[in-house]
Amino acid sequence: MKNKVSFDSQLTKFGIGLFETIRVEKTALDLDMHMDRMFKSIELLKLNIKYDKKFLKEAILNYIKENKIENKALRLTIFDEGYNISIRDIVYDEETYNRGYKLTISPIKRGDSIIYRHKTTNYYENIYTKRYASENNFDDGIFVNQQDIILECSMSNIFFIKEDKIYTPHRNLPILNGIMKEHIFEICKNLNIEVIERETSLKEIENFDFVFISNSLMKVMKVSQINKIVYPVSNEIFNKIIHYCGT
């Protein structure tokens, strides 16, 4: 495992690399799904990575065991010179879940790029959006395209509830389809809740009953506000999903 990167690395020179952030409770949650997504990206982006899936999975499990990691966020980064595993705290707490997230619209309008469909280390647009949100007293920002179609947040997928249906940006849009998003699809299928993937414009957001976001670390989080639009603090469908997510 590398803890230093040379100036000749493609990671240093061009920001070329991939990473996965994995929630570790008593074990690494959804490890196989994270590994499958990473290696699909390696193939599609034609990256020169010298490790195979089995090696990296074992490296993660050994790291967790040797360092007695529990209730942390583990990041695996891979690049041309090697790989790195790092650990940080999970910042979402009970207070955050109770109040929900306040979202604003990112000042960056996205085009259609293959890069957005993969979890690459070229992450500055996401960091810029997160900082922009924080500076304006919001928790995160929503990316939209040139036509003001909603895509995703800087670090999560987004869902809208109207009556008994859930709406979310279509997987064919330039977004990262998260691991937790796939779990939500499966949960809703088991609960007979219809999930509709489609294009949703900014003009529509005030018409929804409820909004929530998801990623592997937070699992699911209600949205209390988008700009000046305030949403209810509770929703029956969302509460059912929470029950199965273990938030």
Order of helices and strands: HEHHEEHEHEEEEHEEEEH
CATH class of the largest domain: Alpha Beta
Q: Tell me, what's the shape?
A: globular
CATH topology of the largest domain: D-amino Acid Aminotransferase, Chain A, domain 2
Number of domains: 2
Structural class: alpha+beta
Number of helical runs? 7
Distance between the termini: 32 Å
CATH superfamily of the largest domain: D-amino Acid Aminotransferase, subunit A, domain 2
Query: Could you give the count of β-strands?
Result: 12
Q: What can be said about the biggest beta sheet?
A: 9 strands, mixed
Can you summarize this structure?
This protein has seven helices and twelve strands. It is of the alpha+beta class.
What layout of secondary structure does this protein have?
Layout lengths: L9 H5 L3 E7 L6 H15 L7 H14 L5 E8 L2 E7 L5 H6 L1 E10 L13 H12 L4 E6 L4 E4 L3 E6 L2 E5 L9 H12 L3 E5 L11 E6 L3 E8 L2 E2 L5 H10 L2
Parallel strand pairs: 4-5, 4-11, 8-9
Antiparallel strand pairs: 1-2, 2-3, 5-6, 7-8, 7-10, 10-11, 11-12
